[in-house]
Design a protein that fits this description.
Elements (H helix, E strand, L loop, with lengths): L1 H17 L3 H17 L3 H4 L3 E6 L6 H13 L3 E13 L2 E12 L3 E2 L5 E11 L2 E9 L7
Parallel strand pairs: 1-6
Antiparallel strand pairs: 2-3, 3-4, 3-5, 5-6
Length: 142
């Protein structure tokens, strides 16, 4: 009898471990995009963007990918997330993220390398997609 219960219990525990919280799923999604950007893959970095994505200065998904590809032509980019605060409400989440950007050979990127962004995420099925990014760098104190 004991052995008949062991397998279902192990499967249940394994299933619970494999399901991450929404916060962790968002962190993982952003980490994959950062890794792609640092590897020089603008398309991979923008894969998390929703088709209706709206970025700073009105950039859509295609414009963001183009902008990233132009930055990457200037050299390898480093992205260092120094703080993340995520609030989840059902299928939507908002994340305040502090980021430091660097570039090989030049150090910090021009235009101010320390940024604060507010990200709007939306869950589509099991995936979190980035809907909107607002630059809060000048709007709020760190």
């Amino acid at each position: 009898m004991k052995s008949k219960l062991t397998l279902p219990i192990l499967l249940l525990v394994a299933g619970c471990r494999s399901q991450s919280s929404p916060d962790q799923a968002i962190r993982d999604t952003l980490s994959k995009a950062v890794a792609a950007l640092e590897a020089g893959d603008a398309a991979g970095a923008t894969a998390i963007l929703d088709d209706h994505y709206q970025g700073p200065e009105g950039m859509n998904k295609a414009a963001t990918q183009y902008w990233m590809s132009q930055i990457l032509k200037q050299g390898k980019v480093g992205v260092h997330i120094t703080d993340q605060d995520i609030g989840v409400n059902g299928n939507d989440a908002f994340e305040k993220v502090h980021v430091l950007f660097t570039q090989a050979g030049t150090g910090l990127l021009p235009d101010g390398s320390k940024k604060v962004y507010m990200l709007h995420w939306h869950r589509q099925g099991s995936a979190w997609r980035l809907m909107d990014v607002q630059d809060f760098t000048g709007a709020q104190a760190n």
